[in-house]
Design a protein that fits this description.
single chain, 365 residues, mainly alpha, ABC transporter involved in vitamin B12 uptake, BtuC, 75% helix
Length: 365
Amino acid sequence: MTNTIERTQPHTGAEQPGEQVRARAGFGALLVVLALGLFFVMGLAVSFGTVRIPVGDAWAIVAHAVTRGGFEPWWSAAREAIVLDSRLPRAVTAAVVGAALALAGAVAQAVTRNPLADPYLLGVSSGAGFGVVLVMVLGVGAGALGAFTIPAAAFIGAMIPMFLALAIGGRYPQPTAIILVGVALAQVFSALITFTLLVLANENQLSVVLHWLAGGLGGARWSTTLFPALTLVIVGTAVLLAAHRMDLLKTGDDGAGALGMNVRRFRVVHLLGVSLLAGAAVSVAGGIGFIGLLIPHLAGYIVGTRAVRLFPVAMLVGAIALVGADVLARSTLSNTEVPVGVVTALVGAPIFVWMLYRQYRKAEQ
């Protein structure tokens, strides 16, 4: 199937191998640059805060922990605790969540062929929010898993509308049925959240739930980072291995089917992967918007729409974007922390509108 796609591309005989080598080298260099950019912005994330720690000292603390005391420390125990127990797990969580949401958004847009699709298209965010409301307001299962109660409730809640959408919408041959059911379920769970908060929640519960729904990384710990990281590794690996087949969908369902793809099964499996990535991200960071919608478009501007290149670039750009947004969220106001979901929306919306303007202006010329 991959060879079929390659045969349809124009080429110039003997020049093609050299061009392919240069393209691979350029793509590899881009990945290295993005990885270095992620390393840089994570250094800023570990350095910035109420207690400023030089970036060099911050990475020295990390290196000292990794090498298990390989050299003599020159910093205080308090600074080491700040870096290793608070800021570093938060930065790692932001990178993992950003990469997961960006990859989920890229896959969602590819399998639905809808540039406005995002990771929450099957109601994942609303379901997660309702799971958190059940724990915080109604006390269902409160404290059952200790520090993991809220993440577990959010993930379980996220999976409910996803499975309902697949069970109901998957009965119909039209690919849009699953998405339409997911949109309807998202509205239902949003209504349940609103009803519960307005009728049953007190002021303290209302504030906590609204803060969680806005998205934030204040509760990030090494223990809570493990689940979304494992989900990203497992689902991300599977998606990247199937990336070369994703481009077959550009020929349409009939064209992809003629090339041997079971389009319906392929789409359902990948929508399941999208929801797993989004559910794992939401469980530790709340409802963070625009990363899954904007970043795939930005990555497409950089490397084009071939999935095998788009997906890894989207993951790295998404990780950089969310770590940077979290730095802004922590440093914008001196006396309070802005929810990171507010930052991504305020920054992402104008960029998205600008990108749409450029795209449509170019199409008119």
